[in-house]
Amino acid sequence: MGASNSSESEIQQSSGAERLSCVDPHFRSLMGKLERLAPAAQRIFSLGKLYFVQGDRDTENDKNEFQALFPSLDRGDSTESKFESGFELFHPLKKSTPPLQHGQTFMQWKAGHDFQYANLTCSQRRRVIYIQPIDDFPDFVKNFRFEWNFQSRTMSVDLFEMLQGFAQIFFSGMDVCLLPKIEMAEIGWDVASRYHQVTGQKQYLVSDFYPHLRRILPPDGACILGLIWTDLFPENFNFVLGEASVKHLAGIFCFGRFPPSSSNAQDLTKITGSIVWKLIKVISHETCHLFGLDHCTFFRCAMNESNSVPEAVDQPLFLCPVCLRKLHQHCGFDVVERMSAEAESNLEKYRAEGHSAFVLGYSGESGKVLVQDLNNMKVFKRVVLVGRREVALDPSFGPEFEQKVVDFEKLEDYRDVFQGMDVGFSCMGTTRAKSGTEGFVRVDHDYVLNAAQIAKEQGCKHFNFMSTMSADKNSSLLYARTKGQVEEALKVMHFDRLSIFRPAVLLCNREESRPGEAVARAFLKPVSYFFPTAITVPVEVVSHAMINNLVSPAKQPVEVYENKAIHQLSGISSGCGAKQSRSAESSKAK
Fold first, then answer.
1. Is the pTM here over 0.70, yes or no?
2. What is the average per-residue pLDDT within 171-187?
3. What terms describe the molecular function in GO for this protein (predicted)?
4. Distance CA 523, CA 372 (A)
């Protein structure tokens, strides 16, 4: 990355480098605040992968502070515009004719990745990225100040610790360890060197570092990244910011032709952006190569190819969705599992906000499990169970639960039942065998939509609908078509938040007799054992997924969770990677 074959005397700070005029070194402490700044979903931006979700701190003060820290993140686009639409970040690249590179799809990357790690589970792979400083660095790099205009803040920070913090965020799911500095002369490294014909600066040959770095890579190391102040050059080029060798699991990076004798050398506030911006870009780019990512030809992305230092500095720091999916897969970072892991703290916060909810279909198998979980977790200050008749509730149910009997054919007469309910759940459903075709449509379609519309008018902000995996408004099958039509109708009601769950075959012990389902469940039992997320899901898993999603910040106004995502979001499924990891650790501890 950043190779140059020009004869220019020195590459100074470019306009791209000046974009990062100041950097807050406390990345991890800023994560919580940055995640709440923007209403758009799933943004990846700035120093690492920052998932921006709608929260309760979307204030003007937060935006001002963010703009002060990162004054202009992308050429031609104001920071304010990035708060409005995160997906504007991913501009498609123009295709050359014929294409110079065909690009690497996720499935192409996965095929090579799976072959490489065929005999290893995710937990058995090397999980640590090591950063190795090499030789001495100027004093002003070891201890330098960051200054920015917002509230006149100043602080000193160790550059290497800051780079470690960046890598820890960018490569979420991996551990990052900073090794003590080593001196090449003391440990006998033989690395070819030369002096650049124009700049006169000393340069080291990058390929000579790889075998040395590989030999000192610890057993748990995924890769080792060498950092050196002296310039680098590869064969056939006169300069490079950094390169990596997949064979050696090693990369070597320099500080990008910043001369120690420069007049700027003692004023770090002027060169901070240049040093940090170049380093974090080249480190993230080359480390992704070590994890099997090729150059990206789809969108503007940190994995775009560059052939000069200005090109390297000018390209964005964020990964496009295609490359980010590859990196997440390798690092074992799963957004849905992250949500489930954070569910406990989210639940406490949500509970303190004092929400109220209603539940449709609470007497059915799915509804009963959901209501029981709501009682066990004490999610709401008030829960109204809406049905055609009262049923005997478990004695453990608290006073916050109350049953309201309504006539769904005259639901307009019961508008007050939904008054003050800001959350709604619909687990309502019947079968054509039980109610006939017209009865099925009336219950699964009309009753649900009428209740949702009245609830919306009475102040409901978040509606949760249990659909089906096969939902499709154009399906030839009545059940799938009806569920799909309900989904589409709910979307145009414009709830503040609409969560649609599409479970596969529900595994439960029904009280009513459904011979067809009983036969299907018996047939699918071995399938659910070996492939738990494929075409089955226990009702308990769906319930936990609905609650975990409920208490998590919204990613977008309309959320649709397919069967596998439901398993992952629940945190209790046998098909949930997080649970499997915890179970393995527990067994190992025993």
1. no
2. 91
3. metal ion binding; metallopeptidase activity
4. 28
